[in-house]
Amino acid sequence: MKHEYCVQTDILETVVASAPVELRHAALLAALATRTEFRSPAYVTSRDSYGAHPARVFDAAGALVADNYRDWIRSEIDARNGDVAAVWEHYKDEGYLLSEIQPVLHFFVHDRGGAQDNFTQFRIFTETEAISRNLFTSAAWRQPERPNDLLVYHNYLGEPIDPRPLGSARYRLYDAIDMPSFLRLADACTAEERRVAAARRFKFTDLQTGESGSESYGEMYPAFDKYPHKSRRFFDDWCESSAGASGERICRRWVFEPQDSEGHQSDQTQPRHLYFIPQWGHNRKVAAVEKTRNMDDYALFGRLNKFDERIGVPFSWYFYGLHGDLVKSGSIERILAAAENGLIVLPEHDYRVLKRWQDQPYGF
Asked: Which UniProt keywords apply (predicted)?
């Protein structure tokens, strides 16, 4: 599904697909710069945590049977009136083979400068395809029973074989997210969510007097919408802290995975929920700030400053604390308390960011 915050051009998809895959993506970056409006694209980071997914079907001799495994298996199930076991019985001894595509996701950015959110983020897959397994296992105890056994989970596919590569690696554009558009839409979605939440009423009964009444969520928690949604706050905190004051661009240090409920909600009467999950952009291994429970606050602050030095951005530890994997959110609480007790000294703008977080914590 193409969303309104995505750049939607067929030319962009074609340019990405036509570039030869290289280790440092030089040809891809050059193609984007010369053939699209994005004149200064830059590589940020990659994620290789995606599993392989089924691609094409071949017979035992290696001849192509179907270009799309899922379409083919769905038609085979339909032809047998949904009898999945009959499909398995028909093909289990035929020696059919399956190719799989192994994706690696790369993040690129075109930074237009100015406001920290003034950029377009590209998510582009490198895909390599190889004939990598038998289509079905012949083991009777693994006979599939439901369509999803073959359509979704693939638990009933055959055993892996020595991979036989099919062609060279290729690029595929996943999306191009215009961050100002994304945040404006997230603002609007959040405003509607909060309007609906504030109006929701709750009935109550006083167990001592027996009196009943009702109160809206907005009346019960009048400050629940005091701050912007967490995606906007992440940018605001960067801009107002030492991280932004240092001149570092957020889009070169973090990448963003949109989470959009549109098209996925079972109850379509509910407001759309839109936000992102930030992921760090460093490409080297960075040790987590661990075993802090027995440290005093001054030692913890020293560890966090060392962490910032490794990252290369002041006050980075706070943003990693919002993420929670390399720096625990408890460190935010301890550093704020230490600053208020006079044990450490923080820049005033960083202190204000921490105080806002304490007033209404958020994270990802």
From this structure: Plasmid
Place of tokens 């966090």: 304
Bridging pattern class, strands 97-111 and 64-66? unpaired
Cα–Cα dist 172/157, whole Å: 26
Query: Is the separation of the CB atoms in 280 and 316 below 8 Å?
Result: no
CA dihedral 264, 265, 269, 272 (to 10 degrees): -70
Angstrom distance (rounded) from CA 200 to CA 216: 5
Q: How confident is the model at residue 267 (pLDDT cuts 50, 70, 90)?
A: confident
Q: Residue 201 is encoded by which pair of tokens? A: 């009423």
CA–centroid distance for 71 within its chain: 27
Long-range Cβ pairs for the range 85-90 (8 Å, 24+): 85/143, 85/144, 85/145, 87/144, 87/150, 88/136, 88/143, 88/144, 88/156
Structure-block tokens of residue 39: 């004149």
Residue 149 DSSP symbol: I
Sign of the alpha-carbon torsion through 127, 131, 133, 136: positive
User: 239: part of which helix (H) or strand (E)?
Assistant: helix 230-240
* Closest alpha carbon to 89 in 142, 53, 151: 142
Predicted TM-score of the model (pTM): 0.89
**How many Cα atoms sit within 13 Å of 215 on the Cβ side?**
10
Residue 194: enclosing H or E segment and its boundaries?
helix 179-199
Contact predicate 349/242, CB 8 Å? yes
Q: Is the dihedral angle over the CA atoms 63, 66, 72, 75 positive or is it negative?
A: negative
Q: Is 12 left (phi over 0), alpha (psi -120 to 50) or beta?
A: alpha
Do residues 301 and 335 touch, judged by C-beta distance below 8 A? yes
pLDDT digits (tens, 9 = 90+) for 26-37: 999 999 999 999
Q: For 203-236, how does the pLDDT look when each residue is reduced to its tens digit (9 = 90+)? A: 988 888 888 888 999 989 999 999 999 999 999 9
Q: What is the DSSP letter of 66?
A: E
Distance of alpha carbon 93 from alpha carbon 61, whole angstroms: 14
